[in-house]
Amino acid sequence: MFFDIGAGEILGLAILGMILVGPERLPKIAVEAAQWVKKARGLATKATAELRENLGPGFEDLQPKDLNPRTFVKKQIADLMDEETPKPKVKKPAAMIDPDLL
Q: pLDDT 10s digit of each residue in the chain, 102 long?
């Protein structure tokens, strides 16, 4: 469900809303709240699209969660770890047999 809210919580919020606002004004307030949510989603979508456009090529897969500093650092470290860097080969010395033991 939305924000991990179950049916019991929604029912409790509806009852609390009827008590605080009143049953006659509750539908109007619910419609206004839905309009605000729709408007906020539209603004967020538009801002993300403008950001992608202004950043230019290479940022087509940009997500808003990528702008979080923690996520950004984790992604950069993961990219660095995925790159194959040539590791110096360590040559092991051949086993030597002591001639006195023979």
A: 446 778 888 889 888 888 888 878 888 988 998 999 999 999 988 988 888 788 777 777 777 777 778 887 887 788 777 765 555 566 666 666 767 766
Cβ count near 12 (within 10 Å): 12
Alpha-carbon distance of 67 to 43, in angstroms, equals 17
pTM over 0.70: no
* C-alpha separations of 87 from 13, 31, 77, 79, 83 in Å: 60, 62, 18, 17, 12
Q: Is-contact 14 6, C-beta < 8 A?
A: no
Kindly state the helix (H) or strand (E) to which residue 44 belongs, with its residue range.
Answer: helix 26-55
What would the two tokens of residue 4 be? 């991990």
Sequence spans of domains, the chain = 2-81
